[in-house]
Design the sequence.
């Protein structure tokens, strides 16, 4: 197999190499790139703790953090109900759908670049969904119980969470700067 050949030629680096079976015909590319993005996030455990707090206070089934340009899944948390979702590829599908939506905005706004949106809300009798800019580099998707009160509370909790996530992001960027300074760049 190709994975075995790559691992064999990698010598002492073999244990740090990951391979992904992908196709241009489905969402496996999103899963592979999302895994790579996930592995590059400093303080990921702190980010996930913050998402768990947001999931708890909004009573969300799922909370997903996306990178803002590509809409690749950075990380996610879910409740027991969210864990029961039979769609194992839903995060990759969501990435693809949201990216397509974001790109289609540019054709309606006559813009040559992908238009950035601040928030997107879906209200149904079964669930509410909010996609909201969380930090300069991320968006958050929150799926939670239906109802206008639940929707307004979730919006307020996301707004409140923005400062905390911006702080986490700035600490991580500072760590990157410290690393660059150590390397002399």
Sequence:
């Amino acid at each position: 197999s190709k994975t075995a050949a790559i691992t064999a030629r990698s010598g002492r680096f073999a244990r740090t190499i990951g391979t992904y079976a992908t196709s241009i015909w489905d969402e496996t590319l999103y899963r592979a790139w999302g895994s790579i993005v996930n592995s590059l996030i400093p303080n990921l455990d702190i980010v996930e703790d913050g998402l768990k707090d947001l999931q708890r206070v909004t009573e969300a089934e799922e909370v997903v953090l996306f990178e803002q340009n590509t809409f690749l899944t950075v990380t996610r948390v879910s409740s027991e109900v969210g864990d029961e979702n039979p769609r194992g590829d839903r995060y990759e599908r969501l990435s693809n759908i949201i990216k397509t939506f974001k790109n289609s905005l540019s054709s309606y706004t006559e813009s040559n670049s992908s238009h950035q949106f601040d928030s997107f809300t879906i209200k149904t009798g079964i669930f509410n969904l909010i996609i909201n800019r969380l930090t300069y580099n991320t968006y958050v998707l929150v799926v939670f119980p239906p109802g206008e009160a639940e929707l307004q509370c979730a919006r307020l909790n996301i707004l409140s969470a923005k400062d905390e996530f911006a702080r986490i992001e700035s600490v991580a960027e500072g760590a990157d700067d410290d690393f660059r300074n150590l390397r002399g760049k």
Residues 178-185 have pLDDT under 50 and may be disordered. The longest helix spans residues 148-183. The chain has six helices and five strands.
